[in-house]
From TrEMBL:
<keyword id="KW-0539">Nucleus</keyword>
<comment type="similarity">
    <text>Belongs to the BUD31 (G10) family.</text>
</comment>
<protein>
    <submittedName>
        <fullName>G10 protein</fullName>
    </submittedName>
</protein>
<dbReference type="GO" id="GO:0005681">
    <property type="term" value="C:spliceosomal complex"/>
</dbReference>
<dbReference type="InterPro" id="IPR018230">
    <property type="entry name" value="BUD31/G10-rel_CS"/>
</dbReference>
<dbReference type="Pfam" id="PF01125">
    <property type="entry name" value="BUD31"/>
</dbReference>
<dbReference type="InterPro" id="IPR001748">
    <property type="entry name" value="BUD31"/>
</dbReference>
<dbReference type="GO" id="GO:0000398">
    <property type="term" value="P:mRNA splicing, via spliceosome"/>
</dbReference>
């Protein structure tokens, strides 16, 4: 979790209530970042826990503001500005068809071989019984049509 720099304004009201959860997620993120690479694991697979914790932290902030209405707009802006949450991912979640998006890399065509979106964006009905695992973030399907 980024440290609050001295000389800046104090965090908005309500930050104290969500700070323990953010600290817990930050400690999980640090553990994932410092975890050693296993023998049978690729570099991409080693990044999966980091992407999953990033998604979890951003989804927590999103749910607090848009679903439960538990935090103010000022606090949401503060959390995005201080990099507690990903503003671009939250913006995509608000659009139709992207409600369950796992990460932004899955919708970028430049990260795939054929210039399309990731395999996890294909609805499971069209894939059949084949197990699907995204090579970018390890998700098993984030299509809204599932």
């Amino acid at each position: 979790m980024p440290k609050v720099r001295r000389g800046r304004k104090a965090p908005p009201e309500g930050f104290d209530e969500i700070e323990p959860t953010l600290i817990e997620l930050d400690s999980k993120m640090r553990e994932a970042e410092t975890a050693p690479l296993q023998a049978n694991q690729t570099k991409e697979e080693a990044m999966w826990p980091i992407f999953q914790i990033h998604h979890q932290r951003t989804r927590y902030v999103y749910d607090l503001y848009y679903k439960r209405r538990a935090i103010s707009r000022a606090l949401l802006d503060y959390l995005i500005k201080e990099k507690y949450a990903d503003g671009n991912l939250i913006a995509k979640w608000r659009k139709q068809g992207y409600e369950a998006l796992c990460c932004l890399r899955c919708i970028q065509p430049r990260d795939t071989n054929f210039g399309t979106t990731c395999i996890c964006r294909v609805p499971r009905v069209q894939l059949g019984d084949k197990p699907v695992e995204c090579r970018n973030c390890g998700c098993r399907g984030c299509s809204s049509g599932d």
